[in-house]
């Protein structure tokens, strides 16, 4: 889930991912992860060619489909386009239910014109019926990452979906979050799990089971096993290195990976063709390797040295934890055009195209960022997501404090 003001963002991403899976794969037995963030993902088991789900969606969501398509355009490719030729009204202000009429055959850009907060209750109702319909045809798993950033509206929608008796035994929601980043009363435990426990106490027949799995940092012996697999060395030979890495990273596996890459580039860790194994200078690593207590600083240092990748990732980070190749390339070209045609500045603010030189080939640089493990491809939409939400955080941090992206006035 995203740390942005837009409500429902993580859930919208998860359902878009589900629509893509229904479209792209006749038999779906895969699972994946959001986040951030990577964000959100879905997994389901589907038999046949998807005809049953298509028919159920049309049958059960007759009134809701046009509204849903404005948020999930791929849904229009799943159901009959003739049915979606209808028109529907969308509340823009929360007061006048006829303030705008939308032809959902042309939904491009429509979502941006809808006041999501004013239509929150309607969106919750429609998403609940959508999930009910999917669960009637197939078991469904929804994975939401970084839920420590979830907005109250998303948590309320999750609560309504989980206690819905129509979804009983057909739905699993996996929420991952950093317990050290949950502050105040607006977080997963207070706004979701406690409410579910209260519901289960009052309705034991429809009780919603909750399982909590705490994932801690690696202990030294587990880190040593990881190094043994990674470096193909002897368990005892790696133990000293495991202790040093654990001292610097506290066993955080993401920190460990980033530190190992840094050590290799600094020449402290290398593969010897002569003896056919990885070798390292433990004293230099202990004395000179940068501490990785703050992975943001470690990755930031790496990104600052990779100037062109930093520029592309800064733009990608503005698009969210997930982004499509086409959208990223479109934005980059739009910035280039603005850079050539305008030198406009805003009061006390840098315009993004005045900060970035953009002297790179976008396709080649995407491949480079993938190779360096800044980003990873998504299962659908020819898109990418950041390898870790900390990388997105670093990419945003390299921009000036008041930089803005302006493609039109």
Write the layout of secondary structure elements.
Elements: H1 9-24, E1 34-35, E2 38-44, H2 51-60, H3 65-71, H4 75-78, E3 87-89, E4 101-103, H5 110-113, H6 120-137, E5 140-144, H7 152-162, E6 171-175, H8 188-202, H9 220-231, H10 235-249, H11 253-266, E7 269-272, E8 277-280, H12 282-288, H13 295-305, H14 307-319, E9 322-324, H15 325-341, H16 352-355, H17 362-371, E10 375-377, E11 383-386, H18 389-397
Helix pairs in contact: 2-6, 6-7, 7-8, 9-10, 11-13, 13-18, 14-17, 14-18
Task: Tell me the quaternary state.
Answer: single chain
Order of the strands making up the biggest sheet? 1-2-5-6
Tell the overall outline: globular
Number of helices: 18
Instruction: Provide the residue-averaged pLDDT.
Output: 76
Task: Domain count, please report it.
Answer: 3
Low-confidence stretches: 26-38, 84-110, 345-351
Span between N and C termini?
30 Å
Give the strand tally: 11
- The ordered H/E elements are HEEHHHEEHHEHEHHHHEEHHHEHHHEEH
- What's the Cα radius of gyration? 24 Å
Nutshell version of this structure?
Residues 28-48 are annotated as: Disordered. The protein is an alpha+beta fold.
Report on the structure:
The protein folds into three domains: 9-206, no CATH class; 220-293; 304-397, Arc Repressor Mutant, subunit A. The protein has 18 helices and eleven strands. The chain has helices at residues 9-24, 51-60, 65-71, 75-78, 110-113, 120-137, 152-162, 188-202, 220-231, 235-249, 253-266, 282-288, 295-305, 307-319, 325-341, 352-355, 362-371, 389-397, and strands spanning 34-35, 38-44, 87-89, 101-103, 140-144, 171-175, 269-272, 277-280, 322-324, 375-377, 383-386. A four-stranded mixed sheet has the order 1-2-5-6, with helices on one face. A three-stranded antiparallel sheet has the order 9-11-10. A two-stranded antiparallel ribbon has the order 3-4. Strand 5 (140-144), helix 7 and strand 6 form a beta-alpha-beta unit. The model is unreliable at 26-38, 84-110 and 345-351 (pLDDT under 50). Residues 28-48 are annotated as: Disordered.
